Every structure is written in C-alpha cells, then in structure tokens.
Amino acid sequence: VLKYDLCTVYILIQIVLSWFMVDIYRFVEEQKSRTIYSVLGTNQIIDQMKVPGLKRQRAYRERWDELIKLSTGVFNALLAKAARHPRNYVIDQTNVYQSARRRKLRPFRDAGFRTKAVVLVCSQEELGRRSARREREEGKLVPREAVDNMLVNFVLPGPNEFDEVIYSEEPREVAERTLKDAVPAARDRLRAGPAPGSGGGGGGGGRCR
C-alpha cells in the first residue's frame, strides 16, 4: 500500500486538449515510475456521456456548455474521493486559473501528496494543427470563445505553488512570450463576440478551468 507522502499528483496546465491521451501516457512512462497513474479529467467523463437526440461528435460541438457543467460536477466528486486514496494521479484539465488549481490540489496537499505541474504552452499555429487533428480524428471542437477565455486567463505557476514545475513544450521564457503575443487578439475577439454562424474552433476538448 502506498503512503501519501510517496504519491504524486501531476496537474496539467494547458489550453484545451494540448495533449492527446497518448501524450499523457508517454509522459508518465518517461517519469520512470513503476507505479500506476490514474488520469482524472472532464474529457474522459464526457466521452462516457450520451446526449439524447445527438451523436457524440455533434453533442461535443452543440452542447458544450451543458456537457462541461455536467461533467464538472462528476469530476469534482471524483477528485474528492481520489484524495482519500493514496496513489499517483494526473489531473487532465486546462487548469489555467491559479485559484482553481489551488482548490483542486488542496485536499491532496492536506493528505500529504507531492504536487507537480506540467505546463503545456505551444504556438497558436501548433495549437491549430492539434485542433484540426482532434476534429479530424475524434470530431471534437471547442468553441473559439472558450479557447480565448482560457488564453486571457492563463496564469503560469508562481513561486512555491508546486513542489516541481515541468515546462514540457517550451521553457518558461518562451511560454510567457507566446501567451503575451496571443492574448491581445483573443481579448479583441471576446469583445467583438462570436461571428455570425460560427461553430467555434481552435481548441479541441473538454477540460475546463
């Protein structure tokens, strides 16, 4: 049986679906850990949902707000339960809000878990390529407004926020510049509101806050 102080919680900090599940599993393997990591996230919950009258791919696009609301409630319950069971976890959401990160990790810290952040900031061009791949392979597309909200609210980890911070895509200096360059356009789009007939775009999955 694992002890709490030997367990680690990795929390991904990212714009929606920057990583595919295969990327998460590859990362875990690279940690050279012989223990099993459980992945906790709203995207996995949404994949198990059925929306009456809609195919799953259409549900992802057309019922985004409703799916996120429902899946977040389930996720919070799973998170509370997980903190009572000593093992290793990966929290697979966007986690761009510092306050949300603190809230999610509080029960784990209180129990004695180690906490590590994995920051995923890539260029807007690369994010667009991953979004296109996600839509092509899985039919998942997040509204552009949701992506822009995450961009303007993205807060990189602060001092002493985690036991360790890993910048998996780009070093912190590059990540800071990437966000600084992307935020003005995102803020302008939010002020302008959604384009008529737009179906969203630019993101890719159900990981909120």
Topology:
Elements (H helix, E strand, L loop, with lengths): L7 E7 L6 H10 L6 E4 L1 H6 L8 H7 L1 H19 L5 E4 L6 H14 L2 E7 L3 H15 L5 H9 L11 E4 L4 H21 L17
Parallel strand pairs: 1-3, 1-4, 2-3, 4-5
Helix pairs in contact: 7-8
Tell me what the structure shows.
- By secondary structure, the protein is α/β, with parallel strands linked by helices.
- It has a single domain (4-192), classed as Rossmann fold, CATH 3.40.50.300.
- Helices cover 48% and strands 12% of the residues.
- It is built from eight helices and five strands; from the N terminus they run βαβαααβαβααβα.
- It has helices at residues 21-30, 42-47, 56-62, 64-82, 98-111, 124-138, 144-152, 172-192; strands at 8-14, 37-40, 88-91, 114-120, 164-167.
- It has a five-stranded parallel β-sheet with strand order 2-3-1-4-5.
- α7 (144-152) packs across α8 (172-192).
- The longest helix has 21 residues, at 172-192.
- The chain is globular.
- The chain starts with 7 loop residues before the first strand and ends in a 17-residue tail after the last helix.
- The chain crosses the membrane at residues 6-28.
- Residues 196-209 have a biased composition (Gly residues).
- Residues 183-209 are annotated as: Disordered.
- One of its GO terms (molecular function) is RNA binding.
- InterPro entries: P-loop_NTPase.
